[in-house]
Amino acid sequence: MSGYQNLSLFDIALSAALIVVNGALSVALRLDLERKLAWAAVRTVVQLLLIGYVLGWVFEFDRWYVVLPLMAVMTLIAGFSASNRGRRTYAGQRADSIASIWASSWLVGAFGLFVVIRIHPWYEPQYAIPILGMILGNTLTGVSLGIERMTEELTAGRGAVEMSLALGATRWEAAQGPARQAVRAGMIPTLNQMAVVGLVSLPGMMTGQVLAGQSPLQAVRYQIVIMFLIAASSALGTVGAVVLTYRRLFSPEHRFIGGKLVERKK
């Protein structure tokens, strides 16, 4: 098997030319996306180069009191990002996003690292940081979609919700329909990914291991574990976010506090 092929800055520049094609299509079709494409491309390069240097230093230093803070920062950024999506928001949404993502991703990540992969030492950055990063990225999507669908369903069906409460329904009986729709919405991306993995798409971790010279079967085993960890964390995070949203918008006296929902400022 041939060795790992390193990429030069010129190779990266060649791939960046594809973004120019996207920009040209945006101009030709009057999509007004060229500035967003350029900014997204710049952010991609800067952020990945930055994390590359940071991870190089962390891998070399290899201490738990360096690895854990970095993982905490990654989790906070994921929580902040999830709370900034959606058309509507409410007081406390950011805290709900961070709490649901933190609890689900760290719980599932710990299970994967300590029980399944069994790394030693437990803070081995080569495993802990990439695995948590993959879990966070997918859990973030589930949480943001869950909260967005919950707030939209409650807004669109406010009349039905308040009528149910007026007729004697409990707050959960009135909210369970929107809550189920929200959980489904949050889990759909992961379910779709699992349905086509290996047939249509080759996931990043598996591709990276194969490119690095790992046995394809070993790479597949790791990817199966990662997919199951992602599915579990996305489900737990989405359910947690929806439950926290429900508790924010319904009082213990079984009243719907629709006034908390406000349209996000553009």
Automatic annotation (TrEMBL):
Localization, UniProt: Membrane
Entry protein name: ABC transporter membrane protein
Main localisation: membrane
Keywords, ordered alphabetically: Membrane, Transmembrane, Transmembrane helix
Record InterPro entries: UPF0014_fam
GO cellular component, one term: plasma membrane
Membrane topology field: Multi-pass membrane protein
Stored Pfam families: UPF0014 (PF03649)
Family statement: Belongs to the UPF0014 family.
